Every structure is written in structure tokens, then in C-alpha cells.
Amino acid sequence: MSLDGYISPIASLPLEVLLDIFAICTECPGDELILLNLASVCRYWREVILNSPLVWQHICLDDRRKIEASHAQARLWLAHSGSLLLDVHVQLTSSDMLLPLLSPLVAYISRWRTCTIAAEREEVTVFSELTAEGIRPHLEQLEIELRGAEDFMGTSSSTDIGGSPTFRSLSSSYTPKRHDVAMHVTMCELPDPSFLCPMRLTTLSIAETSVEVTTDLGRILRFLTALPSLETFHFSGWWPHDGSPMPPDALPVAHLPRLQTLFIRNTCIVRSLLAHIDAPALTILSLRHTNIDFEVRHDTYARIVEEGDSEDEAHDFSQSPWSDRATGMGLRALIRRSNPPLELLDMDYADMRTKDFRWCFDRLDHLREFRIVASDMSDTVIKLLSPYQSTSKCVAEDGSSFEEFKVTRVRLPMLSTLDLSFCQRLSGDAVAAALRSRVLLTDAIADNKTCRTLVHVSIVGCSDFLIPHAVALTPVLGNRLHVS
What we know:
Elements: H1 15-26, H2 34-39, H3 43-50, E1 58-62, H4 67-80, E2 86-91, H5 98-102, E3 112-118, E4 122-126, E5 136-146, H6 149-153, E6 167-174, E7 178-187, E8 203-208, H7 217-224, E9 232-236, E10 254-255, E11 261-265, H8 270-275, E12 277-278, E13 284-288, H9 321-338, E14 344-348, H10 354-361, E15 369-373, H11 379-382, E16 388-395, E17 402-409, E18 417-421, H12 428-445, E19 456-460, H13 467-477, E20 481-483
Parallel strand pairs: 1-2, 2-3, 5-7, 5-8, 8-9, 9-11, 10-12, 11-13, 13-14, 14-15, 15-18, 18-19, 19-20
Antiparallel strand pairs: 3-4, 6-7, 16-17
Helix pairs in contact: 9-10, 12-13
Organism: Obba rivulosa
InterPro entries: F-box-like_dom_sf, F-box_dom, LRR_dom_sf
Pfam families: F-box-like (PF12937)
């Protein structure tokens, strides 16, 4: 029988049927490069595949391949799929690799139709179920949960992706054009930036959730470099410990030009972290549960002397002298490097030395809200809020002479909210005197541009602030004073 002119059955298939076959082939996990294999069969198939975005909608990534190869694969699929929706499939042997594998794709999450994560268990996210009808998702927030290796062994294995869903809706945050979602990942350690593509995320939280985790500040700072658009950063430790003893001069500086909000909680690395973040746009700083009543074993600053490292000349009492010094020196370093326009400083079981309060109050000219809980701050600190006299010079137009004159000023000139809670070392007399003298002046001179007056004062649980002190302040503050 002659084969001349013979046409194989598959060659006679309509193009639409052939494309359907190719699309079905890509949906079978286990061969993430099947499209490339099909494209190598013949020139016709290659032309069909390379010019048909439909068959590039399903992308399968496997952490057993080199990360560089997976990133190249992701870029290839993105380029050939046009603007069509994507079905993302991730095959994991280690949960640490989930974020590196997805990092080239997160900028295009608005095109994701589904995401399947196959590990010890399989999780399928259908994005149309997370967002309002007709509105595409936008990845706004990344939440990283750091666990110890022992914790994974206690569940299923290192591929366990945690009990929380990987993606969830931020229902209170959406616009007619986009619906924000959060991504939650569980891992043993943060990935190196070389494993990541830059991600345009605005909110990051890192939480250590196990005593097995040792804080690795160097890795945290390097990870932050992959997030140049970060606006909010939360870091929460699990237990106050030394962290990795890396000398300060060996740590990188994370440049975060858009960072506006920084929360640090339950950790001993406050000084090192604040000293190695460049945040010139920072407006909110919250330090919580960073006081400790012991000195860490491996203090990386023990043999380093910086301006302000000397003993506090005030010699005021403190239950947490080591952490007071660390917090104060960290805040000094942040202000020196970035000079941020801080508007809110929140300190809850976080404290500083008297000399650090003075240094910071002299420089925080934009601060509007100061909240402090359980501080050992002394009367010397609260008196810093009183008006004080400074000397100014008036130079003649020809520069031949100048005249000195006294000017009454206040520190923290934009302060409008003051919350003092459970500050047991403060005397009621000092608080009443400082606030009375300040408000009498600022009520008269406040212009809301260079100076504000106090509009909210809350004094809670300060044992020496008694009824007579509240009575003395009432004529000045009126209903602006809240005492409990």
C-alpha cells in the first residue's frame, strides 16, 4: 500500500480541537514542561503553541527544579499567555520554597483564576470566591509564620503549609477596580533574596511562632531588600532571646523609602533592627513588650561605643536597664540615619533611659501622639514636656553684630495626644505641673502649622496621680482630660 499523500489523523484535526488537546495536556501535574516538549514535535505544533495564549494558561511549578529554571518558566508562561487568566499549580517538597516559586507571579495575581498547592495536603484557592463579582484580586499583604523544624515534624512534615488558608480576602479593603487579598505562608527560615523576584507588596508581617526559632536579623534585613514598595512592617518575636550574634557592621541596611508604619514586638533585637533600617518616610513606630529584666548573653554592641552609649547621667531607677539602653540607642540610630517625620510613637512595655527621652524629644518635631504603657520614666522625663527657655540670636543685616534674646519653646511642638498608662514612677505633682504649664502656653500660641496644643490627655493607672491632681488640671484641660 502506497503512503504517498497519506495524511495522519492528527494532522487533519481542526485547530480548535488540537488546542483543546494541548490545553488538557498542560492540566496534568507531573510534567510542568509538557508544552515545550509538544512544541518540539514538529514545526506546525511549535507555531500553534507559540501563537496560542490559551494553552499557556496553566502553569505548574515544582520545587525539585532549580529555582532559576522555575523563574524562567514563570516568565515564559507570563509572556505567552497574554492577558488571559492563569491557573497556578505548585508542587512542594518543602514549604520554605512556596514564596520563592510564586514570587515572579505575585505581581500578576489579578490574572490568577485558581492556585493549587500540592504538598502533604492539597489546597485549592478559587479567587472568584475571595473577591467581589467582577473585581480582580490584588496582593496587598504578606504574612510569614516562622516555625522550628520540630514543629513541622509534629504535624505532617516540612511540606505542611499550616492551618491558615494561604490566601484570604481583606474584605474591608477594596475598590471598584480591585479587591485586596492577603497571603499567609509558613516556613522554617526566610528565603534568600537571590531566590526571590522583587515583589510590590505594601504590607509585611513576620511572626516567630515557636521557641525553636532563633531570630536571624541578617536574613530579615536581606529579605526586606526584595520588598522595595513596603509601607507597613510588623515583626513579632516568640521569646526574648539573643538572636544570631552577628556584629552590627556585618549587617546590611534595608532601604525602605516608602515605609510608613513599623511595629516591633516581643524581641531583643530592637537596637539592631532600628539601626539597620533606612525609613525616611516613617510616621508610625510601635514598640511593644520589648522590656527585659536581664542582659542577653551575646550582646553584639557590648564592645561598641556609639554616641549616647555612656551611662545615664540621671541615674533614674529602671527595672529593665539593658533593654532601656538598647531601645534608646536603636531609636537614636533610626533618627540619625533617616530623620523620619514620626507622628505617632507607641511604647507598650518598652522603655528608654532618661537621656534617650531627652535626645528624642529634642528631635521629634512632627510627633503628634505619644503613648506609653508601664514605663519607669521619672519626673525628669515628664518635665521635658514643660516650656523651657532657649537663647536665640538676631544678626544685623550687614552681619556686623547680633543680639541674643530668650525664647520660650516646647519640645514635641506638634504633640496633640498624650497617653500615660501604669507609669508608677511618675509623681502626680510633676505630671500636673508639666501639663498645666504646657497647655497654658500652647493654647495661646498654637497655629496647627508650627505648634499644636493638647486635645487629648489620658492618664490611666498611674498610682500617684490622684484626684487633687485631676482637679488642678481640669480648669486648663477641661474635657480633654481623661483619668482612670
